[in-house]
Amino acid sequence: MSPRARLVLFAAVTPVFAVLFFLAARGLPSFGSDFHPYGDRAVAVAIEQRATDNVVSSVNFDQRAVDTLGEEFILFGSVIGTLVLLRPSPEERQVGQRSAGRVLPTTRLAGYLLLPVSVLVGLYVIAHGQLSPGGGFQGGVVLATGWHLLYVAGRYLAMRRAAPPTVLEITESLGAAAFAAVGLAGLGLGGAFLANVLPTGSRGELLSGGTVPLLNAAVGVEVAAAVVLLLAAFLEQAVVLRRVDYQDQR
Questions:
Q1: CA–centroid distance for 152 within its chain
Q2: 109 sits in which H/E element
Q3: Which of 49, 114, 120, 188 has a Cα at 20 to 30 A from 196?
Q4: Helix, strand, or coil here: 94?
Q5: pLDDT value for 246
Q6: How far apart are CA 210 and CA 196, in angstroms?
Q7: 204 in the Ramachandran plot: left (φ > 0), alpha (ψ -120 to 50) or beta?
Q8: What is the pLDDT at residue 97?
Q9: 139: exposed, middle or buried (Cβ count in 10 Å: 0-12, 13-18, 19+)
């Protein structure tokens, strides 16, 4: 698109956006008001209708789940862009794992011991996102920490074997697709995209919150795979690849 075409498009769209924004903001409470209808209604829906003790999780994965879907795909697109930028260039060659020095035995032991603990805590945070602080995003990061500890313990190749890039790419795609699939199920069964169509259960129980636990699980899988993929891409540049000049290639 030429600069002139961009200016024409900007001039045509800006007045329309300004009018719509003014109409949308005109009914908002004045600044500094103690009238907060959105917050009151969000809490009521989360606790009474959805049986979700974690109001934040209910808002993210139920009342504004479409926005959360956009956030998930922003992460998905960011990871893809980073992997494309960090892919080996024609001047780079794999030279094997470079030595990073001696790793203390206590550090190596701590890494191996904390691996199952990190995985267990991550799964717990994801599974209990509708009951307590946490959820898919937080639990996914904790879950990915377990694989990071393998590298901290001095075993880059062990981390690569435990989480092959191809498997991670498929897992990340499945997590994002699962979120969209739950949304489509709500559209087909409830008449609205991401509508909560499952039984809400009782407050305080693990199987409560309707579709919130399923969405938490989808996000947790996608976030964990994305974080490990990012780490693997950066570590490959630092540990495995080396730039080869013209004389080396000869």
A1: 23
A2: helix 105-127
A3: 120
A4: strand
A5: 42
A6: 6
A7: left
A8: 53
A9: buried
Per-residue pLDDT, 250: 47
Closest by Cα among 227, 214, 210 to 136: 214
The answer to whether 229 and 79 have CB atoms below 8 angstroms apart is yes
Here the tokens at position 22 are 């003014």
Q: Give the whole-angstrom CA distance, residue 139 versus residue 141.
A: 5
**Which secondary-structure segment (H or E) carries 12?**
helix 3-25
- Tokens representing 164 are 């092959």
Burial (0-12, 13-18, 19+ Cβ within 10 Å), 100:
exposed
Give the global pTM: 0.75
**Count of beta carbons in the 10 Å neighbourhood of residue 143:** 26
Residue 64 is given by DSSP the state T
In the numeric block, which tokens belong to residue 213? 């636990």
Domain ranges of the chain: 3-249
Residues 6+ away with beta carbon under 8 Å from 144: 122, 223, 224, 225, 227, 228, 231
For residue range 130-141, what is the model confidence (pLDDT) as tens digits? 888 888 899 999
Q: Which residues pair with 94 in a beta bridge?
A: 241
Low-confidence ranges of the chain (pLDDT < 70): 88-101, 239-250
Q: Which residues pair with 92 in a beta bridge?
A: 243
Q: Using alpha carbons, select from 238, 240, 227 the residue that is nearest to residue 149.
A: 227
Please provide the size of the chain in residues. 250
User: Are the beta carbons of 66 and 193 closer than 8 angstroms?
Assistant: yes
Q: What is the pLDDT of residue 244?
A: 55
